[in-house]
Amino acid sequence: MMPLTVIFSVIRMAASQCSKTGMTPSEIVDTIMANYSRSEIPQPQPIPVQVEVTVQDIMELSVLSNSFSADIWFR
């Protein structure tokens, strides 16, 4: 429920700043994202995100370069 609240708050804020005529889609996105910062922690509370990872197959394993190739699923 929290992510929907955040999305609707941003849309409501942008709607008040955008005129109905004369704005391109790019300008609308710029207005919505004007105060966005990747380096700031969401306020008042961070949004919890749960991710599941499943390893389907390990195809290559290199001891020399300490690397491997794998098929994984994110859910």
From TrEMBL:
SUPFAM superfamilies: Nicotinic receptor ligand binding domain-like
InterPro entries: Neur_chan_lig-bd_sf
UniProt KW Signal keyword: yes
Domain of life: Eukaryota
MF terms in GO: extracellular ligand-gated monoatomic ion channel activity
Span of the signal peptide: 1-16
One CC-aspect GO term: membrane
Sorted UniProt keywords: Signal
Designated name of the protein: Neur_chan_LBD domain-containing protein
